């Protein structure tokens, strides 16, 4: 059973999946930083200084005016954090676009490799075993 498990783990698909998950987790941190540190401030400038990360509505409880989302949550108030949702949607759209571009690039590379293989001339084939035997037979008869 241990050998079967080791063989299963050693298969390429499982290892590829593990590498993909690790890279995906690291990529998520990059995209989160991209959205929080670069895109949201630009969108905020366009919309007049709006900061999505601190946009919320207080559903129940009291929160000091101008308090950030973290402060509102820490105060025990029930908040509707639509700004965090907007940020999550932007994150998703960026990740989806980047994955689309990666898949498109990989498919282009695969297509180019397939076309090269199809366009490569086949090496001339030698005679078959039957043809060689018939040639030997004919040579022996001629003696």
Give the secondary structure arrangement, pairings included.
Blueprint: H1 2-10, H2 12-46, E1 57-60, H3 69-74, E2 78-80, H4 82-119, H5 129-142
Antiparallel strand pairs: 1-2
In short:
By secondary structure, the protein is mostly helical. The chain has helices spanning 2-10, 12-46, 69-74, 82-119, 129-142, and strands at residues 57-60, 78-80.
Walk me through this protein's architecture.
By secondary structure, the chain is mainly alpha-helical. It has one domain (2-120): Large-conductance mechanosensitive channel, MscL, domain 1 (Non-ribosomal Peptide Synthetase Peptidyl Carrier Protein, Chain A). It has five helices and two strands; from the N terminus they run ααβαβαα. The chain has helices at residues 2-10, 12-46, 69-74, 82-119, 129-142, and strands at 57-60, 78-80. Strands 1-2 form a two-stranded antiparallel ribbon. The radius of gyration is 32 Å and the shape is elongated. The mean pLDDT is 81.
Q: Could you tell me the strand content as a percent range?
A: under 5%
Mean of residue pLDDT values: 81
Rg (C-alpha, Å): 32 Å
In whole angstroms, the N-to-C terminal distance is 65 Å
Helix-and-strand structural type: mainly alpha
Helix content: over 70%
Count of the domains: 1
Largest sheet: 2 strands, antiparallel
The low-confidence runs, each spanning 5 or more residues with pLDDT under 50, are none
CATH topology: Non-ribosomal Peptide Synthetase Peptidyl Carrier Protein, Chain A
Q: Write down how many β-strands occur, each being a DSSP E stretch of 2 or more residues.
A: 2
* N-to-C order of helices and strands: HHEHEHH
Question: For the record, what is the CATH homologous superfamily label?
Answer: Large-conductance mechanosensitive channel, MscL, domain 1
Number of helices in the DSSP assignment: 5
Indicate the multimeric state. single chain
What's the arrangement of strands in the largest beta sheet? 1-2
- CATH architecture label name: Orthogonal Bundle
Q: Can you identify the CATH class? A: Mainly Alpha
Q: Overall 3D geometry?
A: elongated
